[in-house]
Request: fold
Amino acid sequence: MTHASAIHPPDRPPARLLLATDLGARCDRALDRTGQLASEWQAEVIALNVLDPSVCADQTLAWISGATDEQLMNVAQRQLVRDLTGMKMPVQVRIVRGQEPETAIRDVVSATSVDLVVTAVARQETFGRALLGSTNERLARSLGQPLLVVHGRTHGPYRRIVVATDFSEASRHALLTAVAFFPGRDLTLYHAYSPPMSGLNMTLSNAGIAPQIAHAECEAFIHGTRLPAGILMHPVVECGTITTTLAPYVRENDVDLVVLSGHGHTGIMSLLLGSTAERLLECLPCDTLLVPSHRSTV
Reply:
């Protein structure tokens, strides 16, 4: 039985990253981002492949030719070592056979004190379909560590970072995690508020007050968060739902990374892992950092 216990925001960037790769072409972007982050943070890297001969052509051919599991694992290890050539930080290579990817990833995370798991969009599926009903979705629900899902190419460090907030403690945790992971960066705090309900008691004056209230709540949230000195926080408040407003904002402002919170069945994560997630994640043309505010224990 899985339980969840509260965890505190980190006070430093990750020291150990886990790159989960199926060795497919889509994972090259996750590999490049892992290398960039490892260099920026001076972090160690564990590169994990859960063997699936159907993904890579050379493994498929070896499997058709009657290769044993040991031979397939050797093929996978050689390919992963080749892919990692040029990685500046220390890298451990691990090939696992006979486990569900989620289980293998969680086992390695728990055994090696990993601070961040990095994955990619699965194969040729859309972002939303890759996350929902997949290993990434199950990881997002069960990991006690942040999960970075890489969508875009790496063109240097993350510069334009947006933290989405619903003013919950979980989204405060996500904000503080972003501050710890990316010290010295200017951050945008993004909030989408529901438009006022139409009705007999709704006037133009009342409708005009709604954005003022949302802006005031955003400012109060920032002032109520213990941020390090010198952090610049740019609040952005838009009318609508996060699924309809966030993706256009990301595209129009060339956002590199969106940080989202998650805690059990409430807050933004409940939205992401619900029926509206696919619409949102399919439209986000950037990387997404999912930050849990709980640690799963057995």
Q: What stands out?
A: The chain has a mean pLDDT of 78.
